[in-house]
Amino acid sequence: MIRYILRRLLYGILILIGVNLLTFVLFFAVNTPDDMARLSIGGQRVSQSAIDRWKTERGYDKPLFINTEASAAAKFTDTIFYQRSVPLLRFNFGFSDEGRDIGYEISQRMGPSLALALPTFVLGLFACIAFALLLVFFKGTRLDFAGVVFCVVLLSISGLFYIIAGQWLFAKILRWVPYSGFIDGWESLRFLVLPVAVSIISGLGAQSRFYRTLFLEEAGKDYVRTARAKGLPERLVLFRHILRNAMLPILTGTVSAIPLLFMGSLISESFFGIPGLGSYTIDAINAQDFSIVRAMVFLGSALYIVGLILADISYTLADPRIRFE
Fold first, then answer.
1. Is the overall model pTM greater than 0.85, yes or no?
2. Where in the chain are the domains?
3. Among 131, 137, 129, which Cα is nearest to 238's?
4. What is the mean pLDDT of the chain?
């Protein structure tokens, strides 16, 4: 098991190097340092001297990969890629194009992101599994049919509709919750109720249908028929046998998603004004701040790799028969 984890970590490092390089190449294939300077300064009629000064202050006046004017190792170290992207492999995020410490910004914005993502994840997972089990318990009845139709309707509607409709109904008409915003402490609950509820409802349809399919597949197996033939109540069959043996595919999507909770939600945080990592990433994309975008892509990739490793480890806990060589 230890050898397997070490091998996966090695693969993960190689993937992170590739992601870092690909992000760098794609960004500079679209924008040159001159374009970044014009956008940051604000306008197309910016003098070349102002552009050169902006590039010099932020280190974008150097070559991208190879500095032919330097000697020895400086040919590769005195470049934009080495000075701006290589430190990411040490999780040194550096500074944004505006001069702000990215690592400090991430540490400050991680709390609001988790405040939104954790209750959404836990309550959403509980709601989807409970709803799917309810449909399986009443399999073949009108309630089951109505529940499937309800799931199809939910997943057929864009998540933006739930956000706009929720803000219009609960914030504007009923005035139960504020439109948007966030404050520290327990007072933040009134700002989080609506985005958490909207996120749960928008994901209920797809996840519940997926879990229902898993449970129905398990319900048709021999061990379930044997349990029913022994006279076990349907409630025990549902929770002790079907749910327990369907945990492997559920763990694939849940455990691997846990590290990504730190990244926040791009759409929800932007619409509800929550100063988390999701809105931080959107703002950086709009401003074309390469340093922030590069750091967030790298962090997201690292967390995703950690999530996949955690999912593999959780398999052995859910099913002792699984062993990794």
1. no
2. 2-90, 108-318
3. 137
4. 85
